[in-house]
Amino acid sequence: MFFKMLKSDLKRKKGLNVILFIFICAASILVFSGSVQIFSNFTREATAKRLCKSSDTQFWLLSERFTEEDLSSRISGALKKEPDVTDWSTTKIAKISETAIEYPHNDLHENRYMFMLKFQGLTTMPREHDLVYDLNDRPFCVPNGCIAIPIEVQSTLGVKVGDKVKYTKPTGEVYELEICSIFKDNMDSNVVRYIVSDADYEVLTENHINSYIVYNIQMKDANEESIADLKERLYKQDVPVLSIVSSSSMNDDVIFMEIISVFVIIVSVFLILIIFMTIRFTMIADLKNEEKEIGMMKALGVDSFSFRWLFAAKYIAFAVIGGIVGIIAGLPIAGAFINMFGPDFILPERWQMILIGVISVIAIIIMMIAFSLIVMRRINKISVIDAIHGENRGERFSKRFPMFLHRRKKMSVPFFIALTDILMRFKRYIFLLISYSLGIVIVLLGFNVRNSVINPKYTSYWLYNNLDFSIRWNEELQEDIFNEAKNTGIYFADIVNKRLADADIPAHLDSMYATRGYMKIDSKEKFFDILWKKGEVEKKIYRKGGKVPKLANEAAMSAYTAGKLGINVGDVIKVFIQENNEDKTGYVENERELVITALIDYMEDGDPIIIMGSEYEDGFRSSYYFTGYTIDAPEAEKPAVIARMKELFGSEQVVDGKQDLKNSVKQFDTLFMLFEYVVGGAIVLILVLITYLYMSIFVAEEVPETALLKSLGFRNISIKAWYLLRMVILLVLSIALGELYLWTLGTIFFGSFMTQYEVTGMKLYFEFPVSFIVIPLIITSAVLFTTIINLRNIKHIGIWKISEE
């Protein structure tokens, strides 16, 4: 009987059945791949720790210093005394310029900027820590005459295994190497490693002046604070460490995967809601059509649980078959998802992927079946009387909506009917409103997240005042300016400003002096970058309720860390700051009491800041922060000024601010563009299918009403106008709700999501034409076009159909 009922259901409304089945299959695939991807994201660090033996932190020492007598034993002794250090090893790495490796069929200058942002290093195969694996998650070796390159380089340049590259030594010798492998690298994201054999490394780095010994350190409880504590203790033991980096720091791949996870969850929930609403709507429509038959069966005494299962036959079959399709197709899609957006991620073991995905899909199947049976409870409301009288029990004489056509002389009849239909039967359209409004929110979110991140206002979270232009500091230019700074004692930014002034170019770099400081909290030290410079403090944008710090004992603090520490505006804190000694040849640590006058939204990335008042001048100038690239000219003249700067520094070194921002977040831009067009397009397609499904049901259900209107003399075009205007009203309401959701809940969600990257105050910036005109028009056009297609069947409805009323 179950299969007979299923066969009967499938024969009716074939188009609706196809759409519902597509939705269920898509949801199952998305849930399978999404759950695996989310699981992979959560277990990434544990997997990397287990398979790659990734180090928690590293410190780098110039090789020439390592040869000094007793230095190696001093470092080893210092590490042995550290109770938090569990293991360490050393590797060799040689810094190479971004132009050292020439790839086939690639113009290096087109992609040079990406490599300038990171440390490029030639190294040997790691053996103890920070191990690497090929694209199949397997170990590999590098023969003599070959080179292995990381996947981020391969994905940017499009090279493949077997291609030949040319490596140029600093001394000018050129060597040809064959790419033998592409590998995943879970080491620090700011280091790009190129791996060669041990023998080739000795030849390629002979007499290399920028070679390092890297200590790869594993710790018991590695976190931001423990790593910072280790760094300070090593400094105090006079260990000559060039730099310390955290291998476990947040990198772009992790951010991409987390953003993907959020969108996968959103789209999955959206699809599941659509499926549930569709099941409810179609089942209620079917039960309504079968009301007399159900009442008759009840009159005959047939009313059992098995009887109710028969009406859910189609939905149970679709859920089971769709779940199977989701399991089969979800596994390869899940792997492709992870490799696409987290190319350096080591995939979970296959059995784990299958187990997680299958459990998720089974949960969805159970939910669909349970929901179908819950909707079946409507059978309880159908009585034996329905078998005799059907719906003619007085409902048609209930109180109507208080709107009358004769009082609305300027309102067209189709619009009046559409409006009263929605107002009188609003519950009928609630699920359609929810579907449209949620779909619109997702499409708008994809665009506005991209527009908000790739936006000049976004740079304020980097402490930038302006970003009219940018200078790409390649190795040659940096070395030239550093040499002048060393000889003259003038700071980097001041040298650049002097060169701009000497060339009579109206532009300058903004910068602030920086040193280190810390607060003692629960016997631990919390480190900060201390920034100051008169004239720059006033240019920053502080959070509402604060005021610009002016006095030497006033300061502003980055809001994320202030929130974690419970520090508010008006609080007094004690900070140990590195300040000039008496003869200004070095620094001493002085304790200062500071009044927090303001908080500032800043992307900390593990380095919170304290901005001192304008009158503060005692800090030890250990480094500096660039805080703006400003052109002192009208907007129309800025391109000409940038052209003059290109003549001064080189055409490849200077770009305008918008281009620099796009380059800085290029990988984010690719991801957001994918969501904007691919996910946005998919959501529009889903809305089209929903419209087709619901309109098919509306047209079928409203045959008596349509026939009645025809008998009263209404033409097909007027009846179609009724349907169209009803959809327009629903769309206008949905768009308004979608915009409202986005700019209230969406903004809150976006700001909360970004706090995991240690930044506060981030919000969505809308672009008026696209957010409020273009996207609503695209969705409206798609929905109305689908509606018009469905209305072709109206001309086939004859007046005699009124007898069904």
UniProtKB/TrEMBL annotation:
Pfam families: FtsX. It is a multi-pass membrane protein. It is found in: Cell membrane. Residues 265-380, 678-797 form the ABC3 transporter permease C-terminal domain. InterPro entries: ABC3_permease_C (IPR003838), Membrane_comp_ABC_pdt (IPR038766). GO terms for cellular component: plasma membrane. Keywords: Cell membrane, Membrane, Transmembrane, Transmembrane helix. The chain crosses the membrane at residues 254-279, 315-341, 353-375, 429-447, 671-700, 721-750, 770-791. Its main location: membrane. PANTHER family: BLL1001 PROTEIN, MEMBRANE COMPONENT OF PREDICTED ABC SUPERFAMILY METABOLITE UPTAKE TRANSPORTER. This is FtsX-like permease family protein. It comes from Ruminococcus flavefaciens.
